[in-house]
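User: Fold this; tokens only.

Assistant: Input:
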Amino acid sequence: MTSVIVIIVILSFLIFSSGSTLTFNKRDWVLISDFENHTENPVFDKSLYTAISLSISQSRYINIFPRSGMLESLARMGNRELTFIDEKTGREIAIREGINLCIIPAVSEAGARYAISARIIDPETGDLLRSETTYAESRDEILPRLDQLSRKIRRILGESRYNITLQNKPLKEVTTSSLEALKLYSAGIDQHLLLDFEGARKYYEAALLIDSGFISAKASLGNINIERFDPVKGRELLNQAVKNVDKLTERERLGILAFYASNVENDIPEALKYTNARIKLYPDDAVARNNAGWYYQNSGEYEKGVAEYKEAIRIDPKKALPYGGLLWVYIDFIGQVDSAMIWSEKMISEHPDNAWGYFYLGSAWVMADSIRRARECFLKAREKGPYLILNLYRLAHTYRILGQYNEAIQILKNILEINKGEISAYYDLGVNFEVMGNTTESRKYFSGFMKIASEDWKTNWPDSPDTYTSLAAVSARLGDMNYSQEMLSKAIGIDSSLHDKFAYVLCIQGKIPETLEQLEKALQSGYRNLAWLKLHPDLWSLHYDVRFRDLLKKYFN
């Protein structure tokens, strides 16, 4: 009986113990470089990196530094065009990011076989800490052998055999058995991360031509179509992908289900359910944290959104996206000036070449009534991102407020040079010429805006209240108050809750008490876009009205 107990204890130790000889703790980070391809077959380029990363990332014990993080680090190092991460580059990134271990995988031909190896090194010294090699008798055996190597690495880093067994789906099931398709899919991921959406789409499509059952490629192509190209086709692809989503890794499965719930079914609570399930399993998943922030933001739970965005930043401060989400909430939905200032400056500190940080800081200065400082920030954002249209609009507004009408007009004309479809620029040009006393030019631009809104918007968006509030505003600018009131009544009949937009029209109509009443209703309902209240050209006549200033003080600290 005693011997049986001893055997059970020994087996339990072997199954559940970490067995690690390296300095690595649960949820520490590792960086995996691209595969060193010592064969003459280019199919192994990129494909095997994606495979080993996917295999190891099933672990809830090990965090892999993401590909996106490596590319962002390369950009800060001045290597924006570099996409191959060799040992030297990987070590440099790891040192910059405070990562203590690098995994350097390689593939080579050993006679008729393939040798697949992984070296675990210290990035600071380059010292070899551990090395493992496995052999595949043919190309068809490479992915199964890579699975075996991944399990060995997980064990070396301290993960128990029990957890490895629970959290390991074979690569051929979760990806594709075709290395050619996997290589194309890997190239698509890189292009997606580099914001070359057209290039990414072409690679995803090419991967699916080789393996039409490649679920991850189908889901990625569906996502990019929904966001950038063809929403109808994107939803069709996602509908196909979700039918087989249980074959994927748990991280991928939950991510795709969340995206499907949000973008196909328009079910934000369901998207949050899947995203929070993913966070529970992988608490250091910055992408999932950012997505949760976005879903909370869209459901109006702004404080929860703020918490998730901040957690995403804590996990990966080098990623710009959660800063943008956090600042969007602070500026447009909560109206917290101090927080917007602090986090804008943090974003600029971490991402000095990102135009959005300066844009958000400029918006924060607008909230704080420092228009000159706001203008300088918007100018800096323009320097970093000359085609950031939203920033150009805000720069034009600051010029207008400061009385620099010619400069505002030039910026607005620049917007139309970039995109002729930016119809709002016509309206704002009319405003600037009107303030300058140039009636001929103001009426020309207002009439141009009126023509587009009457002909295109009423045809394409006849049920949108924005169509009619826009017509009401420009009609009032052109002096047709009867038509303006008719259009305003039409908008109210469609949606009576858009109090801020009704206020803009009423202000142009000269109905100031009614304007203030609608603004108060908007603020009572939670409207907090303080920057826009202070920039909006239709409210400008209120800026020195004590009732308007008192209203803002009532709702904003």
